[in-house]
């Protein structure tokens, strides 16, 4: 049976392994060890919001370093590395997290956990959509804050 072009595989222990496409498939898959799966599941409960002095320390952190700090080397080797190399043809150890994934970097900065931050942001955006018109002042202010965060990130990397 030929490998489908619509599905993506990585090689693990000499055999092709299908890259999971959703959370349930990730849990059932043998692409990661049980330890790594628990690190992903428990991420929102294990991390606390960084202080402002910590933000400057991590502003030059690589994509690989960021995800390894959260989930370990196995997740970087078998999920992050193939994804980053496949989408940007770059090495995650040399790409800046701040520039490559600014939304995740900002979620971690705001909430301490980018998974919990993504969930909270999604819930709050649903509330905003149901209670506010498009193009509202609140939405515009969020875009300004996002822009300023990117400028701050660039400033920290330059200095």
Give me a quick take on this structure:
The chain has 159 residues and is mostly helical. The chain has nine helices and two strands; from the N terminus they run E-E-H-H-H-H-H-H-H-H-H. The protein has helices at 23-28, 34-46, 52-58, 63-71, 73-88, 97-100, 102-111, 114-131, 137-158, and strands spanning 9-12, 15-18.
CATH evolutionary superfamily: protoporphyrinogen ix oxidase, domain 3
Query: What profile does the largest beta sheet have?
Result: 2 strands, antiparallel
CATH C-level label: Mainly Alpha
CATH topology group: protoporphyrinogen ix oxidase, domain 3
Task: Supply the key terms.
159 residues, mainly alpha, protoporphyrinogen ix oxidase, domain 3, two-stranded antiparallel sheet, 2 strands, disordered C terminus, FAD/NAD-bd_sf, Zeta_carotene_desat/Oxidored
